[in-house]
Amino acid sequence: MELQKFLDYVQAENKVEPKDMMPEDYRKLLVRQISQHAHSEVVGMLPEANWISRAPSLRRKMALLAKIQDEAGHGLYLYAASETLNDGTIRADRDSTYNDMLAGKAKYSSIFNYPTLSWADIGAIGWLVDGAAIMNQVMLMGNSYGPYARAMVRICKEESFHQRQGYEILMTLCRGTKEQKEMAQQSLNRFWWPALMMFGPNDDASPNSQKSMNYRVKRESNDALRQRFIDVTVPQAEFLGLKVPDKNLKWNEETQHYDFGELPWDEFYEVLKGNGPANKKRLETKRKAQRENAWVKEAAIAFAEKLELEK
Ligand code: ACO
């Protein structure tokens, strides 16, 4: 298919479907992004799973379990969307993409390489991490690849619940004892900058953005989304009575946005290289799960084959 015709097609807000002709670099860009996104969902279950057995009440435990199960479901929709792009040349089947992640060849979101040290971190993950994820994913509902766009609609609905449950945990802590409020503040201090890094590098340092925008995969830039997130989140922190850990944060009357300090980009790139506080632990946990649970997969395949033979 002629490239210009394809660009005209997606730029006129038409959707591309799995069997349609598409440029190879469009297919590659989607496989890269969708599979990284899927890995983020399943690795993202780990920091929260750390607190299931220590949730402070049955109600909290049930909500946390439901949320973590939702993340597994998001991974499932996204791996399924990625698989629709498998064309024999570009490998996009679930085993290949997942094994790339286990081998450290494929990225997942930097945020999941930070540990969850207190119960308040579960609140901060819902409020900030899922809040940042929604900000990014609402725009992805309008991306040009049909299966990815449709998966995002459902994911966004569930992410909204996640964001609310996180904020409610922090609201409870902030209205509790002095120690509980301090726990919430410490958590905000730890998660603020890593949450801002979720949006990716600044626009002028983002190698994929231009192509992604042209292909209507990304609909808004990393910096635009980060700014919007800050603008909506700072008043939420104020409502909690917490202080955002950025001495340069200031409302700008002229731009009608918050000005904010420089992100710790060295830390971001170290985490991407595998040197974050929990990178090694996360990958080792996933590798161990794959080894130890291989028999479940084998049994399921054997059972499915048996059913097929009996037909
Ligand atoms: N964590 C890890 N890697 C990142 C991050 C991050 N926070 N931000 C950017 N990167 C990577 C990109 O994947 C890219 O790597 P690659 O070229 O080796 O694949 C590189 O850094 C340069 O960044 P960009 O050129 O800006 O990359 P891109 O245009 O793909 O934008 C973004 C990055 C915004 C994360 C985009 O891929 C996206 O929207 N992805 C889908 C949403 C998603 O994956 N969210 C993860 C969190 S979801 C959750 O909370 C469960």
From TrEMBL:
InterPro entries: Aromatic_CoA_ox/epox (IPR052703), Ferritin-like (IPR012347), Ferritin-like_SF (IPR009078), PaaA (IPR011881), PaaA_PaaC (IPR007814). GO terms for cellular component: cytosol. This is 1,2-phenylacetyl-CoA epoxidase subunit A. PANTHER family: 1,2-PHENYLACETYL-COA EPOXIDASE, SUBUNIT A, PHENYLACETIC ACID DEGRADATION PROTEIN PAA. It comes from the Bacteria. Gene3D superfamilies: 1.20.1260.10. It comes from Chryseobacterium lacus. One of its GO terms (biological process) is phenylacetate catabolic process. GO terms for molecular function: phenylacetyl-CoA 1,2-epoxidase activity. SUPFAM superfamilies: Ferritin-like. Pfam families: PaaA_PaaC.
